Each structure stands twice: as structure tokens, then as C-alpha cells.
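Everyone, describe these C-alpha cells:
***
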Amino acid sequence: MSRISITDYAFLLTETADSPHHVGSLQIFRPPEGYAGDFVGDLIAALGRHRVGKPFNQRLKVSLTGMPEWVPDRNFDLRFHVRRSALPAPGSRRQLADLASRLHAFMLDREHPLWELHFVEGLDDGCFAIYTKIHHAYCDGATLVRLANAALTEDPDDQEVRAFWHTASGAAREHPHRDIRAALVGIGGNLRSILTMGRELSGLAGKMALDRLGLGRSALDVPFTAPRTALNGHITRARRIAGGSIEIERLKAVARSTGTTLNDVVVTLCDIALRRYLARHAELPRSPLVAQLPVNLRRPGENSSTNILGIIPVRLAGVTRNPLKRLREIHRSTADMKDALLELSRETVMAYTLLIQGAAIAVDILHVSAMVPPAGNILISNLPGSPVKLYLKGARLEEVFPISTIPPDMVLNITVYSYAGRLFFGMIAGYEAMPHLPEVRGYLYEAMESLEEEVRAVLEAAPVKKKAPARKRRARKPATEQ
């Protein structure tokens, strides 16, 4: 048996039919040319020969004392978790997105280990897809990426088939037998860490209070001050998925030219695209949108599957239409956030995240969102992937679209994933709340072009600085000769 940390259990405790808390991905593979036989069938058969390790052979059990634990599923059947289906003709990418939307909409069955793997055939270009669905209580997005990459290889001739449920078995979940006091802080648990966390949280609350009174400035954005827009509200179970991709070098070029980061550029593109969507289909707010940005709090070398992350609100750009000015405003906001996090322990960041997300969940469940400003308007997550092409039994991975959860009192999540020179945007929204979600992909592309044009215009208008002639300097003797 393994105890569940309070951070992991929070994803189970607050889950509802309208708000399932699993993460996933949609991978599209191109089979090797000239393969004789049933490639997908052979692949599934090879995966079935791998032993299933923890936590993927464990289900949830809540004892009489109310303490949740992971226990082995004595009736484990791999066929329940690994499934095969096919799209009807013509097998378009839109049909694939619709299928993934339906699969992602439903909660995982708690009588079984909380994961599923769906092989989907019938795509019109001969590719097949793998849709993966894993509960957030098992792992966060960074862990899912690590597991997925461990099951693939850079060698197109490597015929070995690896399963993520087997590669995970060698990495035990962190702190499997900690006491309840340790669980309450997520990690750590001694008196010193509790006192440090309390001091830092009270100091943070004081700065935010002074900020609201106009007597000071908090480096972290004050929670529950985002404008209420069409991006906020309670959603039903149905989901809508869309995706797109942009060359990473284009993003890096803008970041280099402006002294910002690639993540700043990504957030700016999302900000511009969403404002264009609101301007067309709803109403633009008078104040900046607020994005919630997940922060991976793992230390170097930490590979636990336990959730170790914070979610921090960051105010985006104001009303300016100039994309470069928007990028600079967002860069300042994210820089302030990073500086503030450096002053806090990760226990404090995790506790702060639980407090804010818990309050947002309560507002959503009680349906009182009209009386409370939202904690944010959009969650934007950035996951690093492999810089080179990956393969599965010779099948080349062509595209990867991350599919995450939708935060409480919001209707949209955008998660980006870098792979083989491209950044893939995975967007998931409430079905009724964003009926025109695929349009956001076009707005992202337009935002990228307008940002590049503005950067080029600024660089072309900048005066060329002439190099001053180098002055001759008298040679200095080595220190040993002085």
C-alpha cells in the first residue's frame, strides 16, 4: 500500500463529472514503410508482454478512517486499459480531434487503475494515433512527458517495444509512507518547514493586501482580481479539442531579438489570439487578462511521479494593440513572478497553489462565480519534449498534442509541447462555452506573423552603430614578472 499526498489526493477529492482531472496526449505516428502484417496489432501484442508496475497497477482505496491509499488491483486486466478503434472514412484530423474530445470528456473508472491507452487507426494519410489518458493524481504533465519519452527511441531501426507502465515501475513514488503532517505540506513536514511556510505565506498575504490598498506593490499578482470574460464560467462534461504548431526557431528568433524568453513569446501569442477571439465572439475586457502558469518545482534529478508543482497567476498585457509592446509587458510580469518565487520555499508555493485552487473550486462547485472575480482567465502550460524525432518500433512520431484539464471557473486550457523543432499547441475547452475553438489556431498564426513583422520593423528602423576603432593597449607583463 502507498499513501497519497494531499496534493495528489486534491485532484481526486475535487473531481466531478463536469470537471474530470486527468491529463493526456494525442500522438500521431507514421508506420514504417513496407511493414508486412498488422503493425498496430503487433504493437499492442508486444506492449502486452510488459509487466505493469506501480502506480499503474494500483487503484484508489479510502479506508474507514478516511485516509486514501493506493492498493494493488487484484483483478487487473490490461485489455481494459489498452483499447483499439478506427475512424470511419475519410479519417480526417478533425474526426480524430472529435474522437479525442469524447474520450477525454469522461472520468476514469475508480474501480480500476486510473489510466487508458487508445490506439486509433483509419487516418486518411496512413498514420495511426495513440491517445493516452492518465489521472492527474498519478502524475503531472512533466512526469507524463518523461514517461512518454522513455517509451520511445531516437533510433528508427530499434524494434524493441517499451511500455510507459513498465518504465515507471523503476521509479518509486516519492515519500510513500510519510505521516499526515508531512502530507499537509505536500513535502517536507518538519516543524521548521511549517514555520517557514507560515511566515512566508503571511508575508505574501501582507504584500498583496497593501497592493490592493494602493500602499505597496506585490511581485505576485493578487489572486481573484482577473476580469470576468467569456473565458470564465461553469462548463458541462462535453469537451472540444483543437491543435496547431509553429516552428520553434521562429519563436526563438523573436525572443533573441527582444531580450525575452521563448515562454514569454508563447504567452504573448496566446494573449493576442484570445483577445481576438473575444473581440469577435464576445466582449473585450477593459483590464488585462490573467493567465495561470504552472511551475515545475522539482529539484535537479528528481523524477518522482508525485505532483510537485505550483500554479501562479500572471497579469498579461493591457489594451495596446502593438504586439511588441504586449510582449514586453508580459516579459516584465513573468520576470516579477520568477523573482518572487525565488524568495519562497517550494512548500510555500505548493501551499499557496492549494489555497488559491481550492478557493476557485469552491466558487465553481457552489455556482457563485458571478459574485467573485475569477482567479484567472486561462491556464497556459509549457512542457519541454525531445528536440529530435522519436520512434516506436520503427514508426515515426509526427505530431504530439498535449490535452490537459480545465481549471475551475474557466473554460479553456492551452498546453504547448516542444518536439523535433516545432511547438505543438494543445487546446481543450468546454464544448458549449467555446464553439469556435478551432479559430484560435488561426489567431495564433496571425499573432506570430504580426509579432515577427513588428520586430523586423523595429530592427530595420534602428540606427546601425558603428564600431569604434580599437585602441592600442600597452601589453602587461605576466604577474610572475612584476
